[in-house]
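INFO worker-7 received task bundle
INFO bundle size: 2
INFO processing item 0
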Amino acid sequence: MPSRVPSFAELLGRTERSAVHLELRDSYAPTERFEAWRRGERINWDDRVSWWHPYDQLIADTVARGVAIRRARVVSEPVSEYIRWEHYVTHANVTAGEQVRWLPRRLATNIPLPGNDFWLFDGELLRVHHFSGDGEVVEDEITADAETVKLCLNAFEAVWERAIPHQLYEI
């Protein structure tokens, strides 16, 4: 019988020091929020109630407990329409307390990168995201395999070191 993958909230709730997230795709499955943005709708950032989601609150609560949350995105340039949207909505991530950086893919050539996006909790437990070619989540996998964790941690730190802080990355 397959083991149950804990929810993101459960994993973050157990985290004591750090959570890092590496994103490697130039697009993911479109959401209604993305489609609205494509139609020209924009978020009123001054009206926090209209855009603050449970995810944002989870991040804010976790950061308030002293957990550092960092997200790095490796992106092709010129960026895809999806990445332009992600850059726009990252205001919410930063407001919630995430530190976010962007690395142009051309600067990542000599970084050994894993084949999948992941979250790494306290440098010990990985939640690996498996996507379809269209960017739909197929499944998540949990592993504490030491070699895999080391590869992902080293990859994240190498990307982070070279990446551009969100507020300085211009699209």
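INFO item 0 finished
INFO processing item 1
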Amino acid sequence: MTGATRHDSPSQNPQEFWEGRYRDAERVWSGRPNPSLVHAVQHLAPGKALDLGCGEGADAIWLATQGWIVTGVDISATATARARREAQRQQASAATRFVTADLARWEPDDGPYDLVTASFLHSPVPLPRIAILQRAATAVRAGGHLVVLSHAAPPPWVDAADHPAHSFPSPARQFVELNLNEHDWLVLSIQTHTRHATAPSGEAAELTDGVLLLQRR
């Protein structure tokens, strides 16, 4: 989950906001897996995975095509319905399950997991992001991995000064905020990646992703 519209309101109900965001567009995301996620997990042995804020399912479906058994969770029923249809189209239905739930209250129900991912779990309306990630981290089995992708900088076509409520913490800062027991976790990667993108105007641009990859000891 990420992004904003001109109808943003800090007091808006998250379920209403995200359901409206998906319902008002035929497609919100590209349908391709996030390159930084692919780079982070492509060498991991497949197992059971959890995708937080799965949106229209691109990351979860890609994981399924790599041999993972995946549960994707998103607050928007429209998003998860699209994810199910796309999984069926790509013949990945048997390896995917999509759940409509508010991550602020949802408890992982089929763990423990070999992999928990959260790709750009940002929201322009209130979302207890750190608490969600901390809860999910407890569902990672010993030897399993936690991957958190984030926006490490604003898009070049956006003036950050115009959006003071949005923050872009570094991966290192996010690790500190997660406050995980360092005796229980091994840090495999804390870095930023740049990737090519297309600005709303159609011009080529670069985005900066924060990548946090941890392994439970």
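INFO item 1 finished
INFO post-check item 1: Strands lie at 48-52, 69-74, 96-100, 113-119, 140-151, 185-198, 204-216.
INFO post-check item 1: Helices lie at 14-23, 35-41, 58-65, 77-89, 129-137, 171-178.
INFO worker-7 idle
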